[in-house]
Design goal:
By secondary structure, the chain is mainly α. It contains 4 helices and no strands. Helix 1 (about 5-25) runs antiparallel to helix 2 (about 30-50), helix 1 (about 5-25) crosses helix 3 and helix 3 (about 55-80) runs antiparallel to helix 4. The protein is flat and about 45 Å long.
C-alpha cells in the first residue's frame, strides 16, 4: 500500500476517534473526551495535510469523509446504540460504492 494511503487511513482513524469522543464529550461538558476531540482532530488534519501532497484534494476529501461517515455510523450503532433505517443504510451503501468507483475506475486517484 502506498505511503500516502497510510497517511489518509491515519487521518480517517484519528477523525473517527475524534468524532466518537465528540459524542462522548456530552457537548464538551466532560473533560477527558473533550481533550481527545482536540487531539484527535489535530492528528487527523496533520495526516490529511501530508496525504494532500500526493492525493488531489477532491479525491482525498471524498475518501476521508466517506470512510469517516461509514465508520461513524457503525460506531454509532455498536457503541451508542443508534439505529439506522433502510434509507440510511442505502445511503451508506452508495457512499461505499462511490469510494469503490473512485479507487477502481478513476485515473485521478493515485495508486
Amino acid at each position: 500500500m502506498p505511503l500516502h494511503y497510510v497517511y489518509l487511513i491515519l487521518a480517517v482513524t484519528a477523525e473517527t476517534i475524534g468524532t466518537t469522543a465528540l459524542q462522548a464529550s456530552n457537548q464538551f461538558t466532560r473533560f477527558g473526551p473533550t481533550v481527545v476531540v482536540v487531539l484527535a482532530y489535530g492528528v487527523a488534519f496533520y495526516f490529511l495535510g501530508i496525504a494532500l501532497k500526493y492525493i488531489p484534494v477532491g479525491i482525498a476529501y471524498a475518501l476521508w469523509s466517506g470512510l469517516g461517515i461509514v465508520l461513524i455510523a457503525l460506531i454509532g450503532f455498536a457503541v451508542f446504540g443508534q439505529r439506522l433505517d433502510g434509507a440510511a443504510l442505502l445511503g451508506l451503501g452508495l457512499i461505499v460504492a462511490g469510494i469503490v468507483v473512485i479507487q477502481v475506475f478513476s485515473d485521478t486517484a493515485t495508486h
